[in-house]
Amino acid sequence: MTAVPKDRLVTIYGGSGFIGRHVVRALVRSGWRIRVAVRRPDLAHHLQPLGRVGQIHAVQANLRYPDSVARAAEGADALVNLVGILYESGLQTFGAIQAQGAATVARIAAEAKAQLVHFSAIGADAESRSAYARTKAAGELAAFAQAPAAVVLRPSIAFGPEDDFFNKFAAMARISPALPLIGGGKTRFQPVFAGDIAAAVNAVLDGRARPGTIYELGGPEVRTFEDLLRLTLREIDRKRLLLPLPFPIARIQAFFLEWLPKPLLTRDQLILLERDNVVSDAATREGRTLQNLGISPTSLEAVLPTYLSRFRKAGQFSRPAA
Ligand SMILES: NC(=O)c1ccc[n+]([C@@H]2O[C@H](COP(=O)([O-])OP(=O)(O)OC[C@H]3O[C@@H](n4cnc5c(N)ncnc54)[C@H](OP(=O)(O)O)[C@@H]3O)[C@@H](O)[C@H]2O)c1
After folding, report:
1. Pocket flag, ligand 1, residue 217 (CB < 6 Å)
2. Which member of 56, 98, 215, 238 has the greatest number of CB atoms within 10 A?
3. What is the residue-averaged pLDDT of the chain?
């Protein structure tokens, strides 16, 4: 790893989120000064202990307000855009955040001559029926149009202590006798450790990526949705029925769940589940993967036990021998 010249400043939009805290930790270790740009800086205090005194600073920025984005970029050598949403809510629409918001950050990166790392997702597709996937594709296009040397990172589903997938299903298993095998559970994923994603950001800012390139980030193994639920149940040592939930029925359920303030499932997410979420052959062939950034991906088995153990029944601390 090359030492970062003293006082280099990176602004991380969305740095208070799940992947964000791993990125902050990785860049702190490399010596960056960090400016975390979020809508509620008061909610980013959990990041302070990750750095030395004064190394991490939170400022207010909302991707829907370009002036706030520009203020947060002042004096920065690099910008990392981690802002993304899984469902729409009020003014937080996919278009406003993942397409226009991405374009705003990229324009400001270009004006400030700052290096840009933009977060997209495997499955980004301009032709998709999913608004999430379409706006992720639009965000990538906008990033390259404004800042041609940008590097785009597209993770598969990410895992780590605060993730949205394994924690959600482990919590569900605690209270429900069955877990849903959405669409039959056949969708394939390549879960990637959030710490490895953060290492990828560090590698890009360290000059180890090809400018103007999309990297696809996946873990060491491809697993089906059903495999992942079984693995979760094994980790928390609980037996639950896996109930096949065909897509048409899941869509009806999602229609109602979408009314919740924080929906468990949406119809847009179901469209994403119709396609595998794995690193493409093209990315492997063309050298656009984690390994090509010098990172050896971490396995699920190495990390899941460190945070799913809290979902075990009281008094159970380790998995009984097989
Ligand atoms: N997690 C995964 O499995 C996964 C997989 C593929 C791709 N990705 C992509 O990776 C990126 C990071 O994901 P994540 O899981 O870390 O997401 P996350 O935990 O939901 O974090 C999103 C961050 O964006 C901020 N944010 C939301 N709306 C904003 C706005 N209008 N202006 C400024 N900040 C805003 C949030 O903070 P406030 O709400 O407090 O403002 C939060 O810090 C996203 O682009 C996501 O699409 C994630």
Report:
1. no
2. 98
3. 94
